[in-house]
Amino acid sequence: MTYLGFHLVFILPPLLLLLLLARPRPPRLWAYLLMPLIALLYTTPWDNYLVWKGVWGYPEGRVLLRIGYVPLEEYLFFLLQPLLTGAFLLKVAGRPPEGGKGLARVVGGGAWLLVAALGVLLVALEGRYLYLGLILAYFAPVFLLQWAYGGDLLWAWRRAFFLGVSVPTLYLWAADFWAIRQEGIWWIAEEYTLGLEVAGLPLEEMVFFLFTNLAVVGGLLLAWHPEALRRLR
């Protein structure tokens, strides 16, 4: 299977099905369509660095072409994953609840600040800590901003938040396992990982899909919440 075939089998069918069920409409449509562009712009330099460094890569014959160090299909994934996760979130989000107390903003922001600091430390250690460190250091600041700004809103909307993160993450874990272990569409360098696996999937890959879905779901829920928009004013 090629990387494009992975999209055709694992990403596009559930995405189209979810879009038929959710039928995104304004006012939530604009944020749903903007999120893939944000994900593409934010993730591109990080992913190019990882491929250049040799943290992960793609065997010859599995990709169509490369733009920079990254295959075209990877850029497509940056667009498709937020659409997939966002389409599921559209179906389960429901109406936005009232915001709670500011404690969630303080606790959430503080926790993610510590995670970001841990990521920087792991990047400095390099070696087998590098992949995990790059994930934590690059994505934790996004969660720090989200929770410091609207952690009370995310906590009040926690059912949609946890469902919106957990279900797509579990699905993408299964798809990633198939891509790595069964098809060899991409590979992960052992020298830059801890060597810890869950059901054959590297820990770092599990954290990557968890964190990217956390970013998408948190960003969309805040964009869809009237109180979050009022705070901007």
List the helices and strands and how they pair.
Layout: H1 3-22, H2 28-53, E1 56-57, E2 66-67, E3 70-71, H3 72-92, H4 103-125, H5 130-156, H6 158-183, E4 187-188, E5 197-198, E6 201-202, H7 203-224, H8 226-232
Antiparallel strand pairs: 1-4, 2-3, 5-6
Helix pairs in contact: 1-3, 2-3, 2-7, 3-6, 3-7, 4-5, 5-7, 6-7
Keywords:
single chain, carotenoid biosynthesis, 233 residues, two-stranded antiparallel ribbon, globular, mainly alpha, 5% strand, two-stranded antiparallel sheet, lycopene beta cyclase activity
Low-confidence stretches: none
The assigned structural class equals mainly alpha
Adjacency order of strands in the biggest sheet: 1-4
Element string (H = helix, E = strand): HHEEEHHHHEEEHH
The residue fraction in helices comes out at: over 70%
Overall number of strands: 6
The number of helical runs is 8
Query: Could you say which overall geometry the principal axes of the C-alpha atoms support?
Result: globular
Q: Approximately how much beta-strand content do the residues carry?
A: 5-15%
What's the structural domain tally? 1
Largest sheet: number of strands, sense, barrel closure: 2 strands, antiparallel
Distance between the termini: 49 Å
Overall pLDDT confidence: 96
Rounded to an integer in angstroms, the radius of gyration calculated over CA atoms is 18 Å
Pfam family, one: Lycopene_cyc
Pathway: Carotenoid biosynthesis
Transmembrane segments: 6-22, 29-46, 75-94, 106-125, 131-149, 161-180, 206-224
Domain Lycopene cyclase: 3-88, 130-217
